[in-house]
């Protein structure tokens, strides 16, 4: 079959354009819209992350005695930058300050928020670990156990087994406490100070 002449090829292109130009224009418009929307979203996300990082640094260097000012900045992060890692981290930081001054209810509220909104699994596990400890101190053992069992990160399993063992021991269940300490020792491995603490707890329970 003979090849089309150059004029025929041009005519086919013109015919194709005339037939589908509206659809092509719409398609180009949609693609450009998606492109600019994506760039806008990406730029906004970067700027938000940078602002959140700066605010988080301000929180860390703020005088610890001025906890109300720290709370205002933490709330700003939680409300405006929930999707960044800094929101949950700031909630954990102020929870530590609340715990140090004995404001356990406020500490619990911040840790619950951090655990439920953390974008990093390790931060979520850390929040649940600290939450379990605060519940343990306040005698809310069921809540402490529930929080400890939500710790999923491998690196926190030894700590989880330790606090779970403490909870069982507090409940008078020495057998389960010892079992949990032994599991924690297996997760921890090595001759660290934490391993020695777990071993001492195991030895103190006895046979």
List key phrases describing it.
Serine Threonine Protein Phosphatase 5, Tetratricopeptide repeat, 207 residues, mainly alpha
What this model shows, in words?
The protein has nine helices and no strands. With 207 residues, the chain is an all-alpha fold. It folds into two domains: 41-143, Serine Threonine Protein Phosphatase 5, Tetratricopeptide repeat (Alpha Horseshoe); 153-207. Helix 3 (85-100) runs antiparallel to helix 4 (104-117).
Beta-strand residue percentage: under 5%
Q: How far apart, in Å, are the first and last alpha carbons?
A: 95 Å
Task: Examine the secondary-structure arrangement and name the CATH architecture of the largest domain.
Answer: Alpha Horseshoe
**CATH top level label of the largest domain:** Mainly Alpha
Largest pleated sheet: none
Write the H/E string, N to C.
HHHHHHHHH
Ranges where pLDDT stays below 50 over 5 or more residues in a row are: none
Number of domains: 2
- The coarse overall form would be elongated
Tell me the total number of β-strands.
0
Helix content: over 70%
Query: What is the CATH topology assignment of the largest domain?
Result: Serine Threonine Protein Phosphatase 5, Tetratricopeptide repeat
Radius of gyration: 29 Å
């Amino acid at each position: 079959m003979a090849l089309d002449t150059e004029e025929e090829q041009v005519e086919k292109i013109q015919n194709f354009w005339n037939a589908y130009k509206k659809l092509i224009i719409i398609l180009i418009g949609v693609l450009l819209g998606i492109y600019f929307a994506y760039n806008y979203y990406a730029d906004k996300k970067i700027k938000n992350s940078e602002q959140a990082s700066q605010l988080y640094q301000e929180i860390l260097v703020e005088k610890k005695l001025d906890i109300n000012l720290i709370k205002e900045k933490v709330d700003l992060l939680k409300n405006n930058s929930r999707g960044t890692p800094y929101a949950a981290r700031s909630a954990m930081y102020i929870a530590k300050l609340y715990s140090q001054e004995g404001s356990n209810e406020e500490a619990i509220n911040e840790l619950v928020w951090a655990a439920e909104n953390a974008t990093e699994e390790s931060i979520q596990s850390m929040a649940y670990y600290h939450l379990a400890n605060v519940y343990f101190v306040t005698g809310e053992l069921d809540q402490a156990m529930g929080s400890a069992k939500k710790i999923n990160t491998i690196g926190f399993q030894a700590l989880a087994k330790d606090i779970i063992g403490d909870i069982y021991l507090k409940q008078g269940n020495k057998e389960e406490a010892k079992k949990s300490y032994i599991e924690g020792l297996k997760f921890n491995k090595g001759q660290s100070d934490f391993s020695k603490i777990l071993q001492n707890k195991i030895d103190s329970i006895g046979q």
